[in-house]
Amino acid sequence: MLVQYLTQKFKKGLLPFRHGVHLSKEQCPKTPPKVEDMRRIPYALVVGNSMYVMLYTRLDICYAVGIISRYQSNPRLDHWTMVKIILKYLRRTRDYMLVYGTKDLIFIGYTNSDFQTDKDFRKSTLGLVFTLNGGAVVWRSIKQGCIANSTMEAEYVAACETAKEAVWLRKFQHDLKVVPNKNLPITLYCDNSGTVANSKESHSHKRGKHIKRKYHLIREIMQRGDVIVTKIASEHNITDRFTKTLTTKAFEGHLKSLGLRDMYIR
């Protein structure tokens, strides 16, 4: 894929998505000639190939692939440029791989969300990741199905989706019968104090009464002892890369925590 679509010599891609860049449907071609010109570009094919890579090992491009995949039906050259940036990044980091074996066999979850950064529908993007034995085993970057009214609500929705994933993982590790402490709850780390407090409440307060009931499932999950939601400092939340663009320093800072590293560097 890299050889086929990166025919020119580009500078090394430091990031899979440029910090501060925002894509929208307003950038999509609106005239038939421009639409026809873009049909000659294999946009959907390359996005699909990138998604395949992301799902199996390259969680570091998860957010970027999620963004570019929203414009497959009518992309513009600006969108195609961002696709090539991802390819340049993959070429630079082609020796990266997930490494396990540095920590205990305990699932640890992280949850996060931005707030209405999607310019088209004003929806937020949630990110979740679970690590085991020093490396990531589950990761997601998904546009939320509802429009959040506040940062706390966006984070609360993300925490609920992460908690549901934790329930499945807890059952999975119990069925394996090889993971120690399989009956202990999974810790979910969240950097929003309001979300942590709201998930532990038995009833809704005035500020959260409008939140859809299905997202309060996290409270039942906690009461069953499946998960524990715990506060974490924002700079230590490794799901930041799944919800927003980051600077090079911040982006690379989480690689080790996710277990992703260059296989030739000890």
CATH class term of the largest domain: Alpha Beta
Tell me the structural class.
alpha/beta
Please indicate the percent range of residues in DSSP E strands (runs of 2 or more).
5-15%
Q: Order of strands across the widest beta sheet?
A: 4-3-2-5-6
- Number of distinct beta strands: 7
**Mean pLDDT metric:** 88
| Topology pattern, helix = H, strand = E | HHHHHEEEEHEHHEHHE
CATH architecture descriptor text of the largest domain: 2-Layer Sandwich
Low-confidence runs? none
| Biggest β-sheet description | 5 strands, mixed
Treating each run of at least 4 consecutive H or I residues as one helix, how many helices?
10
Protein name: Gag/pol protein
Q: Care to describe what's here?
A:
With 266 residues, the chain is α/β, with parallel strands linked by helices. The chain has 2 domains: 2-94, no CATH class; 108-262, Ribonuclease H-like superfamily/Ribonuclease H (Nucleotidyltransferase, domain 5, 2-Layer Sandwich), CATH 3.30.420.10. The chain contains 10 helices and 7 strands. It has helices at residues 2-5, 32-39, 43-56, 62-68, 77-92, 151-176, 193-199, 217-223, 248-253, 255-258, and strands at residues 96-98, 108-113, 125-132, 135-143, 186-190, 227-231, 260-262. The chain has a 5-stranded mixed β-sheet with strand order 4-3-2-5-6. A hairpin with a 2-residue loop joins β3 and β4. α3 (43-56) runs parallel beside α5. The longest helix is centred in the middle third of the chain and has 26 residues, at 151-176. The two termini are 28 Å apart. The mean pLDDT is 88.
